[in-house]
Every structure is written in C-alpha cells, then in structure tokens.
Write a structure and sequence with these properties.
mainly alpha; about 0% strand
Length: about 220
C-alpha cells in the first residue's frame, strides 16, 4: 500500500497531462482510503485486492509517468548518453595496450574526459532507497549500482599524506589535467592531419582528381 500511496501523490502532482494516469490515481486513492477504513472486513479486503491490482498496472507503465512515480526518469539523460556511446573505451581505467598514434592518443584522452564529465552529470544521489526504487526491476537496480560504482571509483580521493586535502579542489585539478592531455593530443593530431593532407594533395594532380569526381557522378 505504501507504493500505492507514493504513486497517487506523484501522479497527481507531475502527470496532470496524462488523463488516464490521473484518473487511475484518483481511483486508487479511493480504494486505499476504503481499505484502511474497512480494515480486515470483507469490503476492506476487496478494496485492498483491487488497489493492489491497480498499483501493479500503474507500476508496469511507470515509464509513462514522471517524478518519483518513475525513479528511472532522472537517469533518462544518462541512459540516452550510454546508448550513444561506443561499446568500449569510455569507462576503461588505465592505459590500453598497444602502440599509440596521435589519433589513438586523442581518442583515449578524450574518452576519459568524456566519461568524467558524464559521471559528474549524474544525479548526486541516484539510489535514495525510497519505496518506488525498492520496487525497481533487477536490471534497473543493477544499472543504478553500476553507475554509482563507476562514479565513486572515478572520483575517489587517494590520500598519500597527512596533509589536509580539499576533495573538490583535488577533483578540479584532475579534470583540468585531463583537459590539458586532450589539448596536447589534439595539437599532435593537428600536425599529423596537416601532413596527411599535404601528402594526399602531392600524390594527386588536378586532372586525376577531376576524372575521379566525374566517375563518381556517373556512378550515382
């Protein structure tokens, strides 16, 4: 019943444009009130049973709701960002093996900075432990745990002495260093791209390029 009460409160406040959800919330509120008023009587048991069924229906469709009625809503931007990411590289800690060209160096440093900024944009407390979040599916709970773990691992402050360290300043320093590495890698990449373009132009005369363009146009 506690989950039902939360759904009623949140649906009434944040989902006024969802007429069906608001109507269901009103009806659920009436059923909960009747169940509490009638107690263990036959009428009370029937109201409680119907209220539970309605709670399940609302909960199954929580993706259409907002506020605390849908605990995953606050992670929607994060999930969209995860979906837009490549499958690897963004959350790796440490340096990957193999030779590093300027392009690979830029990709690695940019990916690390991107992951840091992404983790900083997550809600400050993803899992509050309220009744709605306790009823999330195991997949949803694992996603929350994974994001929490990644954020804490990335921003943990390792104290190496007794000297007092300001965690916020230390994290700012780390992020500035990451930005500097991206900038340095980008400068190297710029030089390599210039060399590649110069080589490309030197190897192809104007007539040859024009014939390639004509052939491509004819093929289309």
């Amino acid at each position: 019943m506690e989950l039902g009460k939360l759904l009623v409160r949140e649906t009434m406040v944040d989902n006024y444009e969802n007429t069906l959800a608001v109507w269901m919330a009103h009806y659920l509120a009436e059923l909960i009130a009747k169940a509490e008023l009638e107690g263990d009587s036959h009428v009370g048991q029937l109201a409680r049973s119907e209220a539970c069924s309605l709670v399940f229906k609302l909960w199954e469709n929580r993706a259409e709701l907002s506020g605390r009625a849908n605990p995953m809503a606050k992670l929607e931007d994060a999930v969209n960002q995860l979906n837009a990411m490549d499958a690897d590289g963004h959350f790796s800690r440490g340096r990957s093996k193999g030779t590093h060209s300027p392009l690979a160096e830029f990709q690695e440093s940019a990916s690390k900075l991107f992951a840091s900024i992404f983790l900083l944009t997550l809600p400050s407390e993803i899992a509050t432990g309220d009744i709605a979040e306790q009823n999330l599916s195991s997949v949803e709970q694992k996603l929350i745990q994974k994001l929490d773990a990644e954020r804490h691992l990335r921003f943990i402050i390792r104290f190496t002495s007794d000297e007092k360290i300001d965690p916020k300043e230390e994290r700012k320093k780390e992020l500035r260093e990451e930005i500097a590495r991206v900038r340095e890698a980008l400068v190297k990449l710029e030089g390599e791209v210039d060399a590649m373009v110069e080589a490309f132009i030197d190897d192809d005369d104007v007539q040859h390029q024009a014939s390639i363009v004509r052939a491509l146009r004819d093929a289309v």
